[in-house]
Amino acid sequence: MKIVVLAGGTSTERDISLVTSHYVCESLRRNGHEANVLDVFYGIDDAEAIRFFLEKNDLAKLEEELKAKTAGVEAELERRKETREGFFGPNVLKLCKEADVVFMGLHGANGEDGKIQGTFELLDIKYTGTDSLSSAISMDKDLTKKVLVPNGIPMPKGIVLHKGEEFANPFYPCVVKPANGGSSVGVSIVNSEAELSKALDYAFESDDTVLVEEYVKGREFSAGVLNGEPLPVIEIVPLKGWYDYENKYADGATKHVCPAELSDEITKQMQHWAVECLKVAGVTIYGRVDMLLDENNNIFCLEINTLPGMTPTSLLPHEASEAGISFDELTQKVVELSINR
C-alpha cells in the first residue's frame, strides 16, 4: 500500500512525533509498503510531491531537517494567520488523498485532538487510529473526566481553572497540568501555595484551561488496548524524580517493568479499566490508559492516549512485545484495523 506517515505539526510534542514517525515508517517499509514521512505543517514543494511515492526519503536525514524547523513554528503560525494560508503545508492534503491510508504519527494538539481526523473524514481519507469525536474527548482532560467519571471510571478529584480566573487551592499536594497536552509538558507537582503560582504560569503557557488535581502518591502504570483486547500492564519507574518529559524520552532515565509485578487481581482490574475507558470514550483501533495505584491498592485512571508513542522508549510497543506482537506486527495490525473499520 501507499502510506503517508503524517508527522511533525505544531504542538509541544512535535519532535517526539518526528521520532515516532521515523520508526513507524521504517517498520511499514519492512512490511512491504511504499511509505514516506510527511510533515503535516511544512509539507513539501511540487517537485518533491511528484516523487513522493516513487522515492524513499532518507528518514534519519529528514528527521534532523524537520527538527531544525521546530524553532520556527511559532513565527510561521503567525505569518499564516496574517496570510490566511491555513494549517496544512503544501501538498499535504493532495498526497494524503493519493495514499491508501495515512498513518497518524502525530502527538498533541492539532494532531491528536480530532481536528485533522475530522478533516480526513470529510475528505474521505483513510487514517489510522480512532475517530475525530473520541480523539477530541480523550485529548481534553477536562472533557475526558466529564465523560468517564459519571460512567464509574475511578479518577483523581480535581477542579478546572481557566486563564484569568481567581483561584484558591483547597488541597496540597496537588498536580497542575494543561487540559490539552501530553508527554507531561506543562505538568507540575505542587506542595505549597508558594509553588502554585509558578506551576499555573507554566501550565498556562501550553493551554488556556488547566486542571488542578489531588496528588495520588503511588506507583505509575500504563495499560494498552489493541482492537478491544487488553495488553500486558507495564509499570513505569523513573530512576529519579517523577515521570516527566525528560524521563519519558531520555534513554535509561526510566525503568519499564512488563509485565508489571502485580497480583492477578490488580492486573485484571487495570486491564478492565483500560478497556472500559476506551469503550466509554468511544476509542477504537488502539490506545493506552495511564494509571496510578496507591498504597491501599486503589486504582486511579489518569488519561487516555489515542495515538501512543512509537519510539524506542515508548510503552505500547513494549506491552505489545510482551504479548508476542513484534513492532512490525503492531504497525501492520494498526493499518489493517484502520483500513477495514
UniProtKB/TrEMBL annotation:
Signal peptide: none annotated. GO terms for cellular component: cytoplasm. The active site is at E13, S183, S314. It comes from the Bacteria. The keyword ATP-binding applies. NCBIfam families: D_ala_D_alaTIGR, PRK01372.1. HAMAP family: Dala_Dala_lig. Cell wall formation. This is D-alanine--D-alanine ligase. It comes from Lachnospira pectinoschiza. The gene is ddl.
